[in-house]
Structure formats: C-alpha cells, structure tokens
Amino acid sequence: QKEVEQDPGPLSVPEGAIVSLNCTYSNSAFQYFMWYRQYSRKGPELLMYTYSSGNKEDGRFTAQVDKSSKYISLFIRDSQPSDSATYLCAINTGKLIFGQGTTLQVKP
Amino acid sequence: DAMVIQNPRYQVTQFGKPVTLSCSQTLNHNVMYWYQQKSSQAPKLLFHYYDKDFNNEADTPDNFQSRRPNTSFCFLDIRSPGLGDAAMYLCATSRDLAGSQETQYFGPGTRLLVL
C-alpha cells in the first residue's frame, strides 16, 4: 500500500464550480499535511499547510484533514481558469511524501 | 524575486554522456534537495544535503551523484544518462530539517531529454 494515494484525474469543471481534491494516507502517525500546486512545466509551489485535524481556510481555498479516516481534502470555491494545474498532496515527515497529483482543468 | 534558481531549464544530452544540472538559492537555507519527477508521477526524492552532510535515498541509483560546494549552490550529476532518466529534475530548499513543519521551496525544474 502506498503511503499517500491520490486520484490522478484529470478533473474538468466549469468556471465557478466548487472543486474537491482528495488524498488518503496509510500511517495514522502523520500529522503535517501540505497541498502543492504545480503549473505545467513549473516546480511545485506550496498552497496550504495544515497540522493534525481540522480545517484551514485561505481565500478561495480550504484544506481539511480527517485523521479518523486518514483523509485529506482541498476545496476550491469559485474556481477560475487560472486554477488549472496539477495539485499534489504531501505528508511532511521531515521528508515530503507526495501523492501522484490530480490534474485540474477549469473551463471558461 | 527568484529564490530557488535552476539552470538550465531544458537540457538535452546523449545516451551515456555525463550531464550536470545546477541549482542555486538566495534563501540561505541549510537543506537542499533533489527530486526526479517523471510525467504524471509524484516527485521522487533522490537525496538531500543538510549543510555539507549528504543523505542519499536508499533506492537512488549510483548513476546519480550530487555536490554542494557552498550554501548557495548544489549540483546534480548524472554520470551515464539512460533513456529512463529523462524527467523533470526539481531542486528544493528548506531552512532546516528538524521537525516536520519546515516548508520546502521548489525551483522551476530542469527538464532533461536523453537522446
């Protein structure tokens, strides 16, 4: 079983839609969770960072951690074409363990 | 302001011909990482330097080497590139390695093509 699993998509939504991106992880001891956004042919950039359980909101983005089900989510409200990218979840154990990434396309 | 810089952005090399990729940082971070990312796959950590201490991942092939001559620069050397080494190579830095709260900052990557 992979330590972090993420559906690669692709996911295509119309502009303005609410997007839900998800990952599952295997080790209940993990506590530091990150979401990176990677535009085509660019390096990943940190989008959100959460510790343990709960929600964290930053503008149109909300990161959610459910430790009981070992499930992490990223929600994007009012999605824009500029949100089109690959979204990578990652667990920070001192090293980053990445999910495969979900490719999102927001159509105007 | 660029913080993690990678050169070149695109590199073409021949099968078996040694190639060096470069990374520099203006953040004065202690830790520098090299990742390999193949198409539609997660970045895979190859190794990292904590200051001058080199830490190799167990499954990183011997074909991949690294040098860090000073805090700002780190190089990835591929001694004999094979077709399977064609990928995006990402450099990242973090202030420290201790604990799990350190953020890694990535460069734009170097896309390597092996002919």
Overall pLDDT of chain A, averaged?
92
Shape of chain A: globular
Largest sheet of chain A, if any?
6 strands, mixed
Low-confidence parts of chain B: none
Radius of gyration of chain A: 13 Å
Largest interface comes to: A-B, 25 and 25 residues
* CA gyration radius of chain B, whole angstroms: 13 Å
Main sheet of chain B?
A: 7 strands, mixed
The string of secondary-structure elements of chain A, in order, is EEEEEEEEEEE
Secondary structure category of chain A: mainly beta
Strand residue content of chain A: over 45%
Helicity of chain B, as a percent range = under 10%
Write a short abstract of this structure:
The complex is a heterodimer of chains A (about 110) and B (about 120). Chain A is mostly beta strands and about 110 residues long.
Q: Describe it for me?
A:
The complex is a heterodimer of chains A (108) and B (115). Chain A has strands spanning 4-6, 11-14, 19-25, 32-38, 45-51, 54-58, 61-66, 71-76, 85-92, 96-98, 102-107. With 108 residues, chain A is mostly beta strands. In chain A, strands 2, 4, 5, 9, 10 and 11 form a 6-stranded mixed β-sheet that branches. A 5-stranded antiparallel β-sheet of chain A has the order 1-3-8-7-6, with no helix packed on it. With 115 residues, chain B is mainly β. Helices cover 0% and strands 50% of the residues of chain B. The radius of gyration of chain B is 13 Å and the shape is globular. Chains A and B meet through strand 4 and strand 5 of A and strand 9 and strand 10 of B.
Features:
A: 108 residues, mainly beta, six-stranded mixed beta sheet, five-stranded antiparallel beta sheet, 11 strands, 57% strand, B: 115 residues, seven-stranded mixed beta sheet
Write the layout of secondary structure elements.
The complex is a heterodimer of chains A (108) and B (115).
Chain A (H helix, E strand, L loop, with lengths): L3 E3 L4 E4 L4 E7 L6 E7 L6 E7 L2 E5 L2 E6 L4 E6 L8 E8 L3 E3 L3 E6 L1
Parallel strand pairs in A: 2-11
Antiparallel strand pairs in A: 1-3, 3-8, 4-5, 4-9, 6-7, 7-8, 9-10, 9-11
Chain B lengths: L3 E4 L2 E4 L5 E7 L5 E7 L6 E7 L2 E4 L7 E4 L5 E6 L8 E8 L10 E2 L3 E5 L1
Parallel strand pairs in B: 2-11
Antiparallel strand pairs in B: 1-3, 3-8, 4-5, 4-9, 5-6, 7-8, 9-10, 9-11
